[in-house]
Amino acid sequence: MRDDGGQAIFFYSRHPITAEIILSKLRASRGNLDGLRPEDLYPHDQDHYGGLEANDLLAAATGIGEGARVADFCAGLGGPARYLASRYGALVTGVELTPARVRGANELTRLVGLHEQVQIVEGNVMAAPIPDKSVDVVISQEALLHIPDRRRAMAEAFRILKRGGRLAFTDWIAPAPLAKDDADLLWEGQAVQALESPKSYRDLLTDIGFRVRSSDDLTAQWAVLLKARLAMYQKLRIEAEACCATAILYSVVPRLGEASPQLFFLRPAPQSS
Q1: At what angle are helices 51-62 and 79-88 packed, to 10 degrees?
Q2: Nearest to 76 by CA among 43, 49, 103
Q3: Which residue among 49, 51, 143, 185 is least packed, with the fewest CB closer than 10 Å?
């Protein structure tokens, strides 16, 4: 555990995907922002591996449907939250630590007319600003790696879930501890805390009271995505600097493939007792 989130805020405050850049691209392609629809944002606001297909997998795993109350931990710019609201009729509260991304997420949500279904609130998932037993589903995508104390975050997910609720998330996994140089590189470049192992995640979730229904190793799929993501971010950094007339810092991790953190998908459900 390295800090309480300051490094993650620093990282995401300088991320090359922002609401400002998304809206700049839409103005350039459409001429204006009149009549903006949720699907107009999808090419720009799904800042997670797997895009819309990954959202659909989470929805299928957790049974998200019309009126389902969903919490998105580390919601970012709210892309998945808006998709689940528009596509499935869910009511989504996203918890996001970085103030600039909270503001950007809510602006994008308002522009596409989903502000009554989606709210992104500023907060820390280790003390989620959501009432007890108030949501049907908790999701998260490639974000828990930034959390200093995942046990606290998962305990918060358990607290806010209704009886029989479901938790589904993707995260980076290290089957063995990373070398110090690799761990330091991930921390300095992307605010990555010490990674869980498959066993430590299962033990953590079980100790809290979840029953782990299934887990999928996505290493092979994500290896392909990471190569494409590196090229995308290199291009986005240039666009961001041009758009905002200021250098937006974004550090990629060139040795991520060599460090080879295993990538895992967990679909737990709370104990019935």
Answers
A1: 60
A2: 103
A3: 51
Domain presence at residue 226: yes
One-letter identity of residue 57 = L
CB 157 within 8 A of CB 138: yes
**Would you tell me how many other CB atoms lie within 10 Å of the CB of residue 66?**
8
Per the CB < 8 A criterion, the answer to whether 107 and 82 are in contact is no
Tell me: the pLDDT tens digits for 117-160?
999 999 999 999 999 999 999 999 999 999 999 999 999 999 99
Q: Which of 20-34, 210-224, 241-255 has the highest mean pLDDT?
A: 20-34
Task: Name which residue leads in pLDDT, 176 or 233.
Answer: 176
What predicted TM-score, i.e. pTM, was given to this entire model? 0.84
Question: Residue 1 falls within a domain, yes or no?
Answer: no
Spatial separation of the C-alpha atoms in residues 45 and 51, rounded to whole Å: 9
Largest CA distance in the chain: 56
Sheet hosting strand 91-96, strand order edge to edge:
118-122, 91-96, 69-73, 135-141, 161-173, 262-270, 210-217
Which residues contact residue 197 at a Cβ distance below 8 angstroms, ignoring those fewer than 6 apart? 173, 174, 175, 176
Residue 170 covered by a domain: yes
Boundaries of domain holding 90:
6-270
Torsion over CA of 251, 79, 240 and 260, rounded to 10 degrees?
20
Look up the CATH number of the domain holding residue 174.
3.40.50.150
What percent of the chain stands above pLDDT 70? 83
Number of structural domains, the chain? 1
Residue 38: which of 122, 138, 111, 99 has the closest Cα?
Answer: 111
Asked if 19 and 79 touch (Cβ cutoff 8 Å), the reply is no
